[in-house]
């Protein structure tokens, strides 16, 4: 490709609304162009990256036996009403009426449509297993789209859906995708982790996120450097502390803590470690009658150590809270504790509440909590001696660095990640409500066991940039670079030798199947180099008159601090040897 | 590919709403699956065809120097308001409101967005010419979607847009696309014609349609078998007859024609050729004031020969009618002619009307027209003698078979076609209203000269089928067949020899880059052959135990009446030799 025939449109300034590096750099490098909030044109330079991502995903999906199809972007509402998602989903589901006032949606995913295809086309167990996928435009009407392609409204997703006879088959399909995803992410050339994720109400352990490691990632990833344990924060288990509870050694004492309503302030005031304090959170659950009216409410007090954070997903699995909970209202809190939030605790409540202690809190001795009286805390609190044992002990907190790894093989570390893939066992979540069945060997209809498997095709390049950039611009891995090699001639318009050498190297590399671009725009060297460093092409060859006279051309990888001199006659072979993809 | 790992879902019955062969066959062959009116899933078998069409289009567009990008499917209304299309377009433009009640459209084409990109990114004449294209999902909310992919609502289109400095540049860009389109359509392996089309108000001759020839086509294509002249019906010129008008030889006579209000009926009653009659059509034009109120109307009488049809596009170019016209109302007709439609003519009108005669009518002698009196016609009418010469003489009719070719090289023939491509010179139609300018060499801003170039990616397979099918199913050209070769083993589960031979042929062809499928489903031969004849794979090899014993395998092209025996050892080479793509 010659640059003059391509569309290169780099910008000096990043857009004012660009908060993250990938948004700034993709815009400045002319890869994306904003059309509206969260809606971007994929410009020629950016589209080349997206097409490479698509090609890798497609190859590995096909290799894993998945079959590609393309479902409509605009989908009639009827199927979405069958599963109830047409009403249940919030405004992120873009709803449309056509000229006949019929309801449609712009697909955010395609579970309903693919399940409908399954129930019509996969009639016999003999046709199973089957995995159907598409790489197609999706739309989610995010309330606050931002970060460029990281959280856009229109995006391209690869979504795959597996159909199996039974749970064992669904597990095999899931594992085949787990393997394919590792092959895909290995090929991208990015540092990533496959982390266990929570599978919600469906249960089982069949949910994994594929996270590209980046300091700017929105997700916390928990892993064990000494083993292959990795999970997201929602899922990572905080083990119960080893050994029994320490014996009580201090008397229980009501202590004035005027104006100190947080654990941090109390610990500072009393000059004790934050780890000796206990944080209170008040929740409520409701019982309803047939009409959906609340007939009875129960108030819950959840306790975690002062330096720990509550984990809502884990809370949602505590028996009694696993059918939904809400935060208690201030009147409910006053009614049960006799005071407003800030000084709450399990001792001397006005009315009984159910107490759930985090595993860590359950083994604490001589701890500090609110006195249920404004401006007072209680120190030296001990289970059994000063209050009954908790109603329940559970893992309800986020893990922290240094916690024991759940696999018993070392200590946990935490880093940040960007979720670009997710594989998920669905079970019969869609097949049962849509009555999607096949005839099994015994002649009886059975609902499909399903799985779904997504990759954010347009998010991946953004994640790659968050991980790989410097102050000059993007640094693409070879596999998804818009061009692998850029040939930069200096003074091509003045020197026939430079022109000839540059064109020959370009043509030779192109003939060898290398994705090469020749910068024939006639820009000055400084501007030319700045453009290609911004765009992030990994391999660069500079061809100058002086170099040709000396018989030495300059090669530089985007990560290299300086150029390497290469004998002119060996440049082709040298560059070919540098390419990893 | 092994059939067992693919998704093959053929149907015995065509859907009830399928009116044309391509709709019937694509549905029965499991290539498309209806989700809603005019909305289809491209099933795996159909998607393979679409991907091949896309690949050919992409290769040739790139070869012609066009640059690919991807514009959003969901587009903010603002740009569409700049050109006025947001309001002007009818309900076929699918309009949406997002969660913030802002207006959006689902793209039917992308002139506005690409012009916006041009005005921002193409700032200097040095960046021109540039041709930007996308292959992307489009939506048109057709009032009556039908014919499967022929007139769907959601479809895939390749749309390209060229930007030039001036008209000469735009002509070069147009010609480059004209050449690329011929290369594309040549590669599809279909019979097609590039036909001159009307370019409407923009003028010039720079508009061509690419029509796939098919008896079921919606469009009439006019061509000259003795030359390369070809045009669509709207555009094809009917030349003025050679030689002068014949002399009058009959007296003008008022003749009773009770109840005979059509030329056909009158000719039959009077036992004269239909070519001696003249058909009347009454139009009106309105003059309006600043407020858009009609202040004055003019009634027009248009005359074509009884066996000819009026051509509205041509009528719209007659001076005086070229700013818009409408059909006259019945009261207007009665006011001017003294009678209702059915017996109208240019003689003895009650009020003066402007008379436009078709070129053919202008040279007729002794003709027949309505008497402006119910149940009466006039025979033996002659221009000059019985009525004044017409106010205007123009080409206002459709050509018919046998008319002289406008290039003077023979006679015209007519066949039916399906429009699958259209290239069009736009001029400054979008750049001027959107103020899309570049800085020219003289430092002054000038509006882009533009062109647009479309190919109906998902319509093309349907057109291919309309042209190539028989009672058993589809017959794909090699270039866009879902698979080029199908290997059909008979009794693969019973015979290890058959299995081995079938797998070897499949593997060898696959390794040679041939798109081959091995039917390992274990279907009986009759059902298996019927499936592949329906799907339309062009090359088939049957491998049977008997054949292997005899050392002869059976090859059959989808168009062949019978199979050809090929020595078993030569099958691979034989099949390779048969492939054209």
TrEMBL record, chains A, B:
Its EC number is 6.1.1.15. One of its GO terms (molecular function) is proline-tRNA ligase activity. Residues 38-477 form the Aminoacyl-transfer RNA synthetases class-II family profile domain. Residues 240-260 are annotated as: Disordered. GO terms for biological process: prolyl-tRNA aminoacylation. Keywords: Aminoacyl-tRNA synthetase, ATP-binding, Cytoplasm, Ligase, Nucleotide-binding, Protein biosynthesis. It catalyses: tRNA(Pro) + L-proline + ATP = L-prolyl-tRNA(Pro) + AMP + diphosphate. Gene3D superfamilies: Anticodon-binding domain, Bira Bifunctional Protein, Domain 2, YbaK/aminoacyl-tRNA synthetase-associated domain. Its main location: cytoplasm. It is found in: Cytoplasm. Pfam families: HGTP_anticodon, tRNA-synt_2b, tRNA_edit. One of its GO terms (cellular component) is cytosol. It comes from the Bacteria. Catalyzes the attachment of proline to tRNA(Pro) in a two-step reaction: proline is first activated by ATP to form Pro-AMP and then transferred to the acceptor end of tRNA(Pro). As ProRS can inadvertently accommodate and process non-cognate amino acids such as alanine and cysteine, to avoid such errors it has two additional distinct editing activities against alanine. One activity is designated as 'pretransfer' editing and involves the tRNA(Pro)-independent hydrolysis of activated Ala-AMP. Consists of three domains: the N-terminal catalytic domain, the editing domain and the C-terminal anticodon-binding domain. Belongs to the class-II aminoacyl-tRNA synthetase family. ProS type 1 subfamily. Homodimer. This is Proline--tRNA ligase. It comes from Ramlibacter albus. The gene is proS.
């Amino acid at each position: 490709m010659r640059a003059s025939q391509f569309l290169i449109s780099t910008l000096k300034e990043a857009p004012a609304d660009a908060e993250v590096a990938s948004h700034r750099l993709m815009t400045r490098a002319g890869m994306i162009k904003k059309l509206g909030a969260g809606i971007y044109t994929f410009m020629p330079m950016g589209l080349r990256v997206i097409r490479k991502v698509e090609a890798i995903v497609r190859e590995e999906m096909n290799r894993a036996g998945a079959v590609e199809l393309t479902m409509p972007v605009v989908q009639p509402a009827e199927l979405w009403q069958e599963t109830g998602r047409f009403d249940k989903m919030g405004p992120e589901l873009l709803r449309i009426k056509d000229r006949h006032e019929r309801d449609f949606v712009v697909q955010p995913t395609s579970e309903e449509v693919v399940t409908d295809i399954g129930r019509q086309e996969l009639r016999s167990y003999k046709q199973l297993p089957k995995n159907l996928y598409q790489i197609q435009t999706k739309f989610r009407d995010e309330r606050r789209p931002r970060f460029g392609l990281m959280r856009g409204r229109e995006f391209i997703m690869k979504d795959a859906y597996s159909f199996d006879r039974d749970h064992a088959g669904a597990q095999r399909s899931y594992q085949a995708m787990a393997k394919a995803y590792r092959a895909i992410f290995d090929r991208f050339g990015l540092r990533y982790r496959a982390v266990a994720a929570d599978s919600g109400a469906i249960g089982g352990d069949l949910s994994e996120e594929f996270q590209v490691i980046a300091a700017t990632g929105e997700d916390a990833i928990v892993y064990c450097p000494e083993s292959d344990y990795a999970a997201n924060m929602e899922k990572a288990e905080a083990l119960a502390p080893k050994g029994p509870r320490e014996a009580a050694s201090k008397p229980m004492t009501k202590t004035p803590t005027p104006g100190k309503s947080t654990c941090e302030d109390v610990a500072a005031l009393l000059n004790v470690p934050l780890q000796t304090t206990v944080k209170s959170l008040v929740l409520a659950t409701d019982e309803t009658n047939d009409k959906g009216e609340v007939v009875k409410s129960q108030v819950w007090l959840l306790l975690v150590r002062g330096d720990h954070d509550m984990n809502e997903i884990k809370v949602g699995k505590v028996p009694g809270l696993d059918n939904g909970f809400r935060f208690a209202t201030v009147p409910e809190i006053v009614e049960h504790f006799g005071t407003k939030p800030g000084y709450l605790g399990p001792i001397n409540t006005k009315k009984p509440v159910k107490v759930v202690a985090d595993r860590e809190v359950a083994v604490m001795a001589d701890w500090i909590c609110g006195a249920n009286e404004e401006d007072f805390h209680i120190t030296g609190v001990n289970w059994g001696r000063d209050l009954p044992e908790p109603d329940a002990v559970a893992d309800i907190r986020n893990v922290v660095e240094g916690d024991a790894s759940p696999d018993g093989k070392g200590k946990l570390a935490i880093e940040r990640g960007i979720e670009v893939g997710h594989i998920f066992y669905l079970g019969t979540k869609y097949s049962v409500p849509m009555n999607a069945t096949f005839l099994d060997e015994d002649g009886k209809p059975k609902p499909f066991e399903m799985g779904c498997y997504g990759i954010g095709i347009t998010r991946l390049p953004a994640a790659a940039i968050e991980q790989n950039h410097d102050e000059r611009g993007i640094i693409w891995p070879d596999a998804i670079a818009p061009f692998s090699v850029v040939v930069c001639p200096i003074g091509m318009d003045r020197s026939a030798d430079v022109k000839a050498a540059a064109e020959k190297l370009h043509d030779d590399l192109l003939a060898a199947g290398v994705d090469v671009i020749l910068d024939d725009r006639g820009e000055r060297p400084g501007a030319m180099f700045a453009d290609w460093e911004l765009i992030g092409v990994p391999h660069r060859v500079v061809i100058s008159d002086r170099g040709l006279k000396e018989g030495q051309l300059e090669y530089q990888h985007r990560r290299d601090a300086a150029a390497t001199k290469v004998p002119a006659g060996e440049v082709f072979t040298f560059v070919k040897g540098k390419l990893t993809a």
